[in-house]
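Before our next group meeting I need something from you. Please put the record directly below this note.
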Amino acid sequence: MMLLKEKYGLTPDTGKSTSSLIEWYNSVINKSEDELNEGDIARIIRQTGIFHGEIQEFATNRAIEMISNDPQSGEMYEGELLRSLTGILEETNNISSLQKFINLKENIEKWRDKKWENLSSIEDKYERKEIKHQRDEFNEIFDNFSKNLNSKSKK
């Protein structure tokens, strides 16, 4: 398998600075696309100053795939990948990319309707409260994604 640094022409940062971002960058460019986890994909998407072009397109498509399988995908918190995609919507001008986002939104809406439909039937009030909290947090992320997508689609 080809490493990211080979496939996308990325070079290690050999400067004297040892920030966590530089350490992560040097680590992630030595992975293949298949070795990237949800956290790596989310961070690549967010780091538009470092990653752009083909690798950014790859990461976006991988995020859409991951979210399609699990709308709450994320390494640091549920919905992290969706929140990362929300951040790049403003830069998306490609019609086919917008259509992918629109399709993703529709799939999440269907998933969301089913995910919490039986919430009121949970007898344990603490469990019900925790699930409501998870639902509310995810809904906030999704609503922000939807709002940004809707405003982008109207332009």
Observations:
- The mean pLDDT is 92.
- The CA atoms of residues 122 and 128 lie 6 Å apart.
- Helices lie at 4-7, 20-28, 38-46, 54-69, 80-88, 95-115, 125-154.
